[in-house]
Amino acid sequence: MVDVYLNQKFIGTVEDSKSFVENFKKDRRKGVIPKSLNIGYNSKQNEVFIDGVSGRSRRPLIIVKDGKSLLTDEHLEKLKKNEIIWDDLVEKGIIEYVDALEEDNCYVSLHEKDLDTEHTHLEIDPIIIFGLCSALVPYANCGQSSRLNRGQKTQKQSLGLYASNYLLRMDTDVSLLHYPQRPLVRSFLYDVFDQDKHPAGQNVVIALMSYEGYNMQDGIIINKGSIDRGFARSTYFRPYSVDELRYSGGLMDEISVPDKEVKGYKAEKDYKLLEDDGLVYSEARVNSDDVIVGKTSPPRFLGDLEEFSLTANIRRESSVTIKQGEEGIIDMVVVTENEEGNKLVRIRLRDERKPEIGDKFASRHGQKGVVGMIVDESDIPFSSTGIKPDLIFSPHSVPSRMTISHLIEIVGGKVGALSGRSIDGTTFDSEPVADLRKELLESGFRENGTETMYNGITGEKMEAKIFIGSMYYLKLKHLVANKIHARASGRIQLLTRQPIEGRAKGGGLRLGEMEKDCFVAHGASLLLKERFDSDKTNVYVCENCGMLAVSDEYRKKYFCTKCGTNVEITKIEISYAFKLLLDELKSLCIYPKLKLKSKY
After folding, report:
1. Does 318 lie in the same domain as 365?
2. pTM
3. In three state form, how does the secondary structure of 318-346 look?
4. Which domain holds residue 273?
5. How far apart are CA 382 and CA 207, in angstroms?
6. Domain holding 566: CATH number?
7. Which of 413, 490, 577, 599 has the most C-beta neighbours closer than 10 Å?
């Protein structure tokens, strides 16, 4: 007997599980059983599961009977003439929806020509095995699967027109590409999903070659002339939000230009951008630490009130300033109310971003890289027809990653640009590469996509033929201006006296174990000492007992709490974290004794 479960609950047993499952599917296709139910037989546990819970993922498949698809050419003709619709095919039992449970017992063919008597279902189209973003990658069947995964992820990170009403929105941390384009080589799903309303890249001329070693590994080289003409130019938006908060006791914040009596008043020039209402004006150019909203708050503690009287109540300065490392133009100022009825100010900052060294770019095939150099247009290699590439890509990035689709797109883009049409690069159903090469030959170019190139600096003809063509390239949201991080001195932690962590808080960069090993290997001892000086401190040590001594700088007295004053007390330089360790050992009743040697 085989146990049967409905939505994970035991409902009974059947003798012949195979015939039960078959009859269940027949009745479902006839409409006797609801089409929302799916059934699966688990041979390991010898159990039948029926599932109808909401929220599970199901996908349509064409039913196959005796090695033949139930969807005939006659059905396709009727669909084209709108005599029948999709729901009719589902009702007639030609197409059915299966979930993960039922799919385990299905034998699905990708192509109709491969069908045999063992197959149970046929894919509507082979591209359905992909997700939305994977299906947009052209010639994906000519690349490695792990690269395809990376390629579809880069499309999600690319800059483009994310929403047409961006001017009315206050989105956190978004960028907008100025001149997005439709790709020359495209999948038919671009039209299905109306992807042209959200373009996210640009067609560029790309050459595969090395240039002065600045495009090693994944580095790319960009033509400065292309940047000047608007290539990969984008605007970065960042919102700032300020509330007038209410505090207990009837006190509240006040948004206005702070008075000079306010505690923590900055210099007068810091408030130069503020208007009478305490808000910055639109289209003002601002830099780091500029005040954009003047705000004063009541004292934090009762002790802040002078002589404990409310008459001498001094407010404190709590204005909003531009974050460290950011700059731009004030794009929009909105004054409204929040849920509690308090004043709410939202300010949007915009900053134009041109491509710079360190910005991240990628193709749709998982070939991502950062800008390694921006070269003057006069120094860029050129072809015999005078074409200069916008982007130079390293050829060493292709063989080990096996992204042949990347190379095919360059040839396809070249054909599309020459013939003035879009190239169909739909996976499993694309224009054959042989046809593209033939058309390229007919256009007067080499069929393999290579051309004779000349050195832009010397004008000499290059010995090797250079692979050059057109390609759709994406600028990713990982901009170096949002990630660059450096500091000299600044805020430190209270406990360890070491620099705080994090770029947003103005923290330091941690030098790790491996970085230390590199300095040791180079013999850079002074640099190493400087790096590890972030929490250096001077302490006084009793040479008799080896414990930390007391130094009274005011009275110029030095003594040991254990041995008294008649002992040798020496000043040494140690890390404060080590001093902290000594204190913790003492708290465990362990006696850490410091033995000092003479420096000389």
Report:
1. no
2. 0.83
3. CCEECCCCCCEEEEEEEEEECCCCCEEEE
4. 236-353
5. 10
6. 3.90.1800.10
7. 413
The verdict on 349 and 362 lying in the same domain is: no
Which residues, 6 or more positions from 437, have their beta carbon under 8 angstroms from its beta carbon?
Answer: 411, 447, 448
Same-domain status, 115 and 253 = no
Q: Per-residue pLDDT averaged across 567-576, rounded?
A: 92
Give CA separation, 334 vs 8, 239, 240, 284, 328, in Å. Answer: 53, 11, 10, 15, 17
443: its two tokens: 């256009």
Last residue of a domain, one of 321, 338, 353: 353
Contact 64, 123 (CB under 8 A): no
Query: Residue 18 burial by CB count (10 A; 0-12/13-18/19+): exposed, middle or buried?
Result: exposed
* pLDDT tens-digit series, residues 224-245: 999 999 999 999 999 999 999 9
Residue 427 in tokens: 């996976």
Residue of 3, 88, 125, 218 marked active site: 218
Q: Which of 353, 380, 402 is the last residue of a domain?
A: 353
Altogether, the residues listed in the chain come to a count of 600
Over residues 440-486, the pLDDT tens digits come to: 999 999 999 999 999 999 999 999 999 999 999 999 999 999 999 88
- Runs of H (alpha helix) within 137-186: 145-157
Q: How many CB atoms are closer than 10 A to CB 438?
A: 13
Residue 583 annotated to the active site:
no
